Amino acid sequence: MGRALCGLLLVALSLARPTEQERVKLWYEAGNRWPPTWQEETDGMKRLMEHREKEIMAIPGADERWENWMQYTQSRLVPKFTEKGFLVTPTPKAVAEKLKNAVDSCIARFESLETEGDVNAIYSPEDFRPRFCNIGSLANEVMSDLQGAHEGWVNGMKLVPTSAYGVRLYQNGSSLVMHYDKMHTHVISSIVHIAHEYDDPKEQWPIQIEDHDGALHSVNLKPGQMLFYESAKCLHGRMKTFRGKYYGSIFVHYKPVDKSIWNYDVEQVIAAVPPHWNEGILDESGSRWAGQAITTDSRVAEGAPPRFRDTTHGKKSGRVSDEERRRLRGGK
Questions:
Q1: What is the tens place of the pLDDT at every residue in 145-155?
Q2: Distance of CA 215 to the CA centre of its chain
């Protein structure tokens, strides 16, 4: 049985999750409808979401489709806090300088740096996985230094720091799947770019990010710049392959203090995925499964495997039939 369906079709004792049939019953009892109206969306975003749903429903594999649905549902469930969803701004000088000093020290001993473990959101050649520059307590220091700037970006909303990761040094041949970040911790975030070395300065490595109107942007950061972004709401990644020796940034995350503003978790997303998500499933996994990510053809990262059908297990068992789905929603 596939990874995603295992969590839905079997009752996991540790999480007490319902079976898929129970989940669908609860979905209708809660008065849900589709398309959702949880948050206000612009016409541009509605068009994008309609197109994305069609692409996701064309994915034949259950695991891959479920992970796409989880990401897609999260993006429509949570609120937005800024007009656009992201902003490029200079890194405060003092913060930029101490990060550069730390990273320069790592780059000087690059070949001895720890190789990051296998991250399913990153496509990279086996011998070119990202290196990790451990900056110790400086990570938390930077997170504290930048908290006020993040709160200023969201019009003074009080935030609590949740994570400062890095510095990750991507290597040649890397790409990053398009995704939304962890909703329980990664809400108001920034990518603080520190250093890079391209093979060709004209061939840069942009981060792609969708704004709140559904438009896709490619943003090239310079060392000493940072990107504020609503990381649980705005789809982002690096679909283009990196060509160079290293690309180093630290990732800083916060969430609202006020739980009446933000109190979301993965269980709410699971409960909000609509009953029709698994219509037409043809195989169990899906060859482009990459953890929770958007892996549709229009947003696929370079380096992803081609999609093909896995026919070794046949069609899924335990899915809710159309007749049962009609019964659960009251015969409508």
A1: 999 999 999 99
A2: 17
